[in-house]
Amino acid sequence: MLKIPEPRADQRSRNDMDAFWMPFTANRAFKADPLMIAGAKGNHYILENGRRVLDVSAALWCVNAGHGRTEIVEAIQAQAATLDFVANFNNGATPAFELATRLSLLAPGDLNRVFFTNSGSESVDSAMKIAMAFHAARGEGQRQRFVGRQMAYHGVGFGGLSVAGLGPNRKTFGTLLPGVAHLPHTLDHGRNAFSKGQPEYGVELADALEGIVAMNDASTIAAVIVEPVGGAGGVLPPPKGYLERLRQICDKHGLLLIFDEVITGFGRLGTTFAAEYFNVLPDMITCAKGLTNAAVPMGAVIVRDGIFDAIVEGSVGPGPEFSHGYTYSGHPLAAAAGIATLNVHRDEDLNGKARVLGAEIEAQFHTLADHPKVKDIRNLGVLAAVQFHSREGAPGARSRELRLRCLEGGALLRAGVDNVLISPPLTFTAEDVNLVVTQIRKALDAIE
Ligand SMILES: Cc1ncc(COP(=O)(O)O)c(C=O)c1O
Q1: Residues lining ligand 1, judged by CB closer than 6 Å?
Q2: How far is the CA of 157 from the centre of ligand 1 (A)?
Q3: Which terminus of the chain, N or C, has less C-beta within 10 A?
Q4: pTM tops 0.90
Q5: Domain 71-347 has what CATH class?
């Protein structure tokens, strides 16, 4: 048994770093040499020493309209002063209804019903539950299996982790949900390295879904979930025709198709949703991040009418028709931030800006292809990855060192294992892109 020690508050200074157990962070390394952000405006972070550095990741693929947007700050302030909070359990307040309506108008096809959450992880778990509830409502409650994909990231809830495909995130957590199968990933250096935009090869990888159906029978499978463009796995644009093929196979077997648009939603591909960019209509879209420009946490599942109708309209009894929800589903401050964010997108044509910026990113980043340390460059819209050859015996060292050098040069990058992931605010300029590319080349020249 753990012995509970005496409180040791008296031993702590106010800014002691020990207490905060930081998420997805090498805590010991960070606390030995912390990088503290004091402020942010537009495309820049302001460090504690007052230096401005470019935010090349839009925080974590989420501050799509740039930092410190006055319109969003003011909307949050006004809402907080009017109605700080009401739980939307048998009560309601206007902001969530208004935001849901706006989203239903922006989402393609009959994706018209919006279930609010507080994060991408919760959106994914909620979508999986909606899929099960849909089948159950139609007398097909045996459809309980899910299909995810290797190298996918769907957050850290047990549902999302089960369909995700990044080994290090999964390995500690046992068997996760039973009955989950994974499609092969679509990363193919052999055939597709240095593709600009969607790669040519790999549509046939979608046919693995037929194999999974043959193994388990379609009548046991609830849904397939994919990121339209893989994000945290390393920016993996889908091969040409791949998403269309997945849609066809899902239709053939009555499987729901969920697009996890937590990253691709809200302008990253120059459209509000990737579903529109690829012209493939999923049955549900999960989103979060850019929905509120990250100013207040919020996520959502956008659902086709038929799914809502089966679960809610088809229900007998007084309800609730779907026993699921979060205290903060549709939080008024988050909803106010979401409405203000959508206004900024509309008024500044951020989708249009993203299309121009995406072309700039493609042109400038692919100039790095001649560097001997570069193994691959992938891009689509305002998303890109530069992958390096690993240093012998020290995988990941190159990207860690490169990140530090780029920071010195004025750009804070997100580094993975020998790659850097590029997802700046949609307000980045051609000069900003040039600074980043120049710093990456300089750093690559300098490191071993
Ligand atoms: C595709 C995708 N799904 C889900 C999530 C999880 O979102 P959150 O961290 O808000 O729970 C992320 C986060 O990066 C993501 O990229």
Answers
A1: 119-121, 124, 153-155, 227, 231-232, 260, 262-263, 288
A2: 10
A3: N
A4: yes
A5: alpha beta
